[in-house]
Design brief:
Number of domains: 2
Shape: globular
Largest sheet: 7 strands, mixed
Strand order of the largest sheet: 3-7-8-6-9-5-4
CATH topology of the largest domain: Cytochrome Bc1 Complex, Chain A, domain 1
Structural class: alpha+beta
Oligomer: single chain
CATH architecture of the largest domain: 2-Layer Sandwich
Radius of gyration: 22 Å
């Protein structure tokens, strides 16, 4: 399972996104006549060439970025469908689609996609989140056409064979068991439900046993026909490629599908939290877990960038405030982290700590005290600069690979706007200490939040 954050494409299991990866990675061989595989320091984090964005006649968005760090091309298909597009009857169907699109089409059967990608020396991956589902193929540049043809067949001609549905249903049930049994994953998943009560961002991406058992060839195909339309897709191609050559590959594949008149469902209304919501869950683990969460703004809100810096300052690094005080000095937590997870309509900013059960209330109190101190005084200039440097570094590392660039572009195009990604670092640098302080006051109230604790089950 994977989730994307704004700054970097990271492989992190947090329950927000679910998916599968397969096949082996391609060798990073230098492109003929291109830059070396390890770019110079000045070139790192900067794809070469212009970013080409085209809207095909059928509504599909095509993004092509020349990136010559290696002779590797990333071909990503992003579809604007995830848990927030589902209903109580189709909960988990977006993720089920992700599994089934690898299980054969009208012309080839299960295993063909993996064998074909592996045969090029490439790899494939896919995951589903609240806002989107993405299918990603990474191949040597000479296999770009193959990757595009495979993704086209997967999106529009998948068979949804009943036998394969039954098999993948069991795989999804196993994913759900792993999610439940993993303390960090489970606590963050449940925290989302508390921060977003009666709202799609609090629903499980994996669905429920009832909705998974109710999935059939008929309703999965219906879900596919509704959401897998050209108007609802972005195809991102990054690597040592020419935009005109890529367009020539896309026109006879994705470009041949007609518009459907797709219109996205209306956005649900988010009700704000108004009180502290607390829950304690007994589990078989020996160590306790504590999570505090707040509602945060969505992708297009400038404050989401400010919260990226705020979360780094409070608990985003080994030298952050909470790590220094609660872990190193007071030794009441063994680990503490903070994350600002930004989605299309809203976000969640949360603090997660591993600790002893006897210290749960004390740690909650001390976290709130540190938040109040930041709200009062704001960060130091050194803290602000270090947080920006960390963000810039992670952004640059992401941009060193075609896969990283394609992931960043695809997420931005699907959940917000591509310009938000292209200007991310530029906008980040303008954020002041006062803005970080004001964001702490606005988004981290110490009297309105969700608090979830996992504690060891008491002996009978």
């Amino acid at each position: 399972m994977r989730v994307l954050d704004r700054i970097a494409v990271v492989a992190t299991l947090v329950g927000l996104a679910a998916g599968c990866a397969s096949t082996t990675p391609p060798a990073a061989t230098p492109a003929t006549g291109a830059a070396p595989a390890v770019p110079s320091a000045a070139a790192r984090g900067r794809p070469t060439g212009a970013t080409t964005v085209e809207k095909l006649p059928n509504g599909l968005t095509l993004i092509v970025q020349e990136h010559r760090a290696a002779d590797i091309v990333a071909v990503h298909l992003w579809v604007a469908t995830g848990v927030r597009y589902e209903t109580s009857d189709t909960l988990g169907h977006a993720h089920f689609q992700e599994h089934m699109l690898f299980k054969g089409t009208d012309t080839f059967g299960p295993g063909y996609i993996d064998r074909t990608v592996e045969g090029t020396g490439g790899r494939s991956n896919a995951f589903t989140s609240a806002d989107y589902t993405t299918f990603q193929i990474l191949v040597p540049s000479e296999s770009t056409r193959t990757a595009i043809e495979l993704l086209d067949a997967m999106a529009f001609r998948s068979a949804f064979a009943p036998k394969e549905i039954d098999a993948e249903r069991q795989v999804i049930f196993e994913e759900a068991r792993i999610e439940t049994d993993t303390p960090k994953t489970a606590i963050i998943r449940q925290l989302h439900g508390m921060v977003f009560p009666n709202y799609p961002y609090g629903w499980p991406v994996l669905g429920t046993p009832e909705t998974m058992n109710a999935a059939t060839q008929t309703n999965l195909k219906a879900f596919n026909r509704r959401f897998y339309t050209p108007e609802n897709m972005a195809l991102v191609v990054v690597g040592p490629v020419d935009a005109r050559a890529v367009r020539a590959m896309v026109d006879p594949t994705f470009g041949q599908h007609a518009r459907t008149g797709y219109k996205p469902p209306p956005n649900p209304k988010l009700e704000p939290l108004t009180v502290v919501v607390r829950r304690t869950v007994e589990r078989p683990e020996q160590q306790a877990q504590l999570a505090l969460g707040w509602q945060a703004p969505g992708f297009t809100d400038r404050d989401s960038l400010t919260l990226d810096l705020l979360s780094t300052i409070l608990a985003g690094t080994e030298s952050s405030r909470l790590a220094a005080t609660l872990r190193d000095n007071e030794r009441i937590v063994s680990r503490v982290t903070m994350s600002n997870t930004t989605m299309q309509l809203a976000g969640i900013i949360y603090i997660h700590a591993q600790l002893e059960a006897a210290d749960v209330e004390k740690v909650e109190r001390r976290v709130l005290e540190e938040i109040a101190r930041l709200q009062q005084d704001g960060p130091t200039e050194e803290e602000r600069e270090l947080a920006i440097t960390k963000a810039e570094s992670e952004h640059a590392f992401t941009y060193e690979t075609s896969d990283g660039v394609a992931g960043a572009y695809g997420q931005a195009q699907t959940a917000a706007a591509l310009d938000d990604e292209l200007r991310y670092v530029e906008r980040l640098r303008t954020i002041t200490r006062e803005q970080i302080r004001d964001a702490a006051r606005k988004y981290l109230p110490t009297t309105v939040y969700a608090r979830l604790a996992f504690v060891p089950k008491k002996a009978q």
